[in-house]
Amino acid sequence: xxxxxxxxxxxxxxxxxxxxxxxxxxxxxxxxxxxxxxxxxxxxxxxxxxxxxxxxxxxxxxxxxxxxxxxxxxxxxxxxxxxxxxxxxxxxxxxxxxxxxxxxxxxxxxxxxxxxxxxxxxxxxxxxxxxxxxxxxxxxxxxxxxxxxxxxxxxxxxxxxxxxxxxxxxxxxxxxxxxxxxxxxxxxxxxxxxxxxxxxxxxxxxxxxxxxxxxxxxxxx
Length: 221
Known about the structure:
Layout: H1 10-38, H2 44-55, H3 64-74, H4 76-93, H5 97-121, H6 141-156, H7 160-179, H8 185-205, H9 207-219
Helix pairs in contact: 1-8, 1-9, 3-6, 3-7, 4-5, 5-6, 5-8, 6-7, 6-8, 7-8
């Protein structure tokens, strides 16, 4: 008898890629729609942003130093270059070359989409901003980067604890951006959706090599 194999079939991989593409496309539409909605001056989201921007000033003020640290880690040289390159290098050393390509591609595409939407919407940041940032409040680049990292990690290492850590990291980053008044609440919510959408679309394009590499590594324990 032929031994059973755990390697996914070509049709199975195509099915996974199609589902990733569909969900990613839907989430991308949601992210863009959020940006369009906050452009409307009579949107209820504007009222939500104003309320949160006032409330977050007094909510857990003792962790503001953490928020300033997250400001450094989430973007700039560290978040834009160091984290993706180091992460890709570690994946390559772990014999996950396609995982490394996936991480770099998702990071690059995510950063480009963030800048595209920032330029498209040109939303003004809160007046109380406590850090130096570029123009364009929607979406939050820091939060989108965090969501990309978390989603890549879950796809490459499908474990519950990975998902929990990834969600916690993304939520902490989102909160930190509002606590230092660098972004409105909806900037971070839209960015989380955008980060996940970007990663799923890139994963869909790289489904066959990434899934085969992941399943092969999982079969080895």
